[in-house]
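pinging the channel bc i need a second pair of eyes. not urgent but kinda urgent?? the chain im working w is below, pasted from the shared doc
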Amino acid sequence: MPDLDNQQTEDDLVQQQHSVDALEVAIGKQVRTSRKRLNLTVAALAKQAQLSTGMLSKIENGQTSPSLATLTSLANALQVPVTSFFRGYEEQRDVTYIKAGEGLSIERRGSGAGHQYQLLGHTIGKPYNIEPYLITIDDESEVFPVFQHAGTELIYMLEGRVTYRHANKTYTLEPGDTLFFDAEASHGPDEIQKLPCRYLSIIVSEAVST
């Protein structure tokens, strides 16, 4: 049986290394941007900051972690505050941009002719999972899949009309209606009353370490 504590420690170390690498790259980009703004060559800036050109090149390419003393020397030479070197790192955030109709098609139980699931984004390296789907139903069906999974789900109705079942109750959803529920209970469309039917489904659950 795997040692979960050791696995968690390894995962944490990997995540920390990724953060360090990202910080090095962000600092390097800011140093290069500031240098070019002053029309300085690598050699000229290195001389002013009392660094070797090789070291400055490594810093600009995100290949080393400069000390605070080195960053202070560079900041003085470039006439910028030390904090400006961290600006790019602080502004880094996960982002997914999806053009209309270009969501990733996902095969889920019940998907197929007349039923389309499009994944609109996903979280990376977080202690939780968020899965936003655009679900389109444009074909009448008498049988729909029943879902049960971990987490919480929010449905926001965009078009059409559907009777949606959660546990032992049903709810009629029309454009603008929402349904927020515990996804561990059985749920899913019960009857399509007006086609086409489109709604957003956002599932939030705790991330599971593998």
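so The chain has two domains: 4-90, 104-206. and The helical segments are 4-37, 42-48, 53-60, 68-78, 87-90. — does that match what u expected or am i reading it wrong
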